[in-house]
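User: For a benchmark we're assembling, each entry needs the component sequences followed by a predicted structure for the full assembly. Here are entry 17's components. Please fill in the structure.
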Amino acid sequence: MRQRVCILGSTGSIGRNALQVLRQLADDFEVVGLAAGSRWQDMMAQAREFKVAHLAIGRPEYESQLQGELNAEQKLYSGEEGLVELIEHCGCDCVLSAIVGTAGLMATVRAVEMGKKVALANKETLVVTGPVITELARQTGAQLIPVDSEHSAIFQALHAGSAEEIHRLYLTSSGGPFRTWTLEQMKQATPADALAHPVWNMGPKITIDSATMMNKALEIVEARWLFNVTHDQIEVLIHPEAIIHSMVEFRDGCLIAQLGTPDMRIPIQYALTYPRRLERCGEPLDLLRVRQLRFEPPDRARYPALELGFQVARQGGSSGAVLNAANEAAVEAFQAGRIHFGEITERTMEIVGRHKWIEHPTLEQLLAADRWARNEVHACLTC
Ligand code: NAD
Ligand code: MG
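Assistant: Structure for entry 17:
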């Protein structure tokens, strides 16, 4: 029996990589649902190739154009509720959550409620709803398998010991495009500078997050919820070659790492096929070509976002929702030329510092905290 997969965000960087993986694994997997935001022609082409019957378009203004393209077997869902309906009706066993930001959050929550296997690329889901979704998954038996390369590495390394034996998790970071820039240069950075990542080819939002190191801050919070560790069990290491994707240090001092070429198809495939390992996609790792692996401590003065990530991981509760929403709105403002690069983190920190913290929030309270933080960023832009 083939595993039935639904891809939320099929036209993005992760979505397209996932379809490349699935093209090679057609004997084991069937694609039964696809969702995208606006690039409906691309999604239709994918639907034709993979013979997908259930489609969702996040932006309802494209619904009528898409309707005209459907065949008799195909069904279309639209808007944010449409993404949830797709999960409910497409009959999938596994959901790849790869919509950028919080647009796919409720659909991912629904997949967890339904006890499905969730391959989680969208780290925002865990940052925003960490305390709620991990508990929900425990109740429904839904599996949350990380796709983020660092968390996939840790997830794999954790097979070498038990949760009680974890001493520390090392999250590695390539250092982003500004690793060797001066602070002055960084202040003047444009969206085009921030979009030039030295190693990974990803969507624009996560690429800008990598330049501010907010991506690592979000990953600290993601790791805190996914692996149920405390903030002081997490360490960040700059590793420019991006070959070691992260490590676990166990209490006996042994470090277990996962190494590989920087290619997102590897963690995507692992999440889909887990607990099995199937034939490799992409290039094998040639250590003799890499020759050296370097490590540096992160410069916390250059990247204040890191401190913020640790603070939010320590606080827990509603802090993650505010961190994520404030950052998302600030990144949009930077892309629109309304704030400088340095202000992304400044404004996010200021809003996290001001929010009314809730220790044990409900999902509704987390969504309200998200809305409040976005409004605060917009209010700041006009003041
Ligand atoms: P991307 O910008 O390339 O793609 C985003 C996808 O989301 C597209 O398919 C787009 O159509 C869809 N989308 C946007 N708004 C939508 C809406 N309102 N309704 C429905 N669909 C919508 O982004 P990406 O780089 O693929 O990243 C996706 C997620 O994976 C993010 O959460 C990111 O943090 C995470 N992630 C990405 C990478 C990577 O290498 N790209 C690595 C780790 C984690
Ligand atoms: Mg990552």
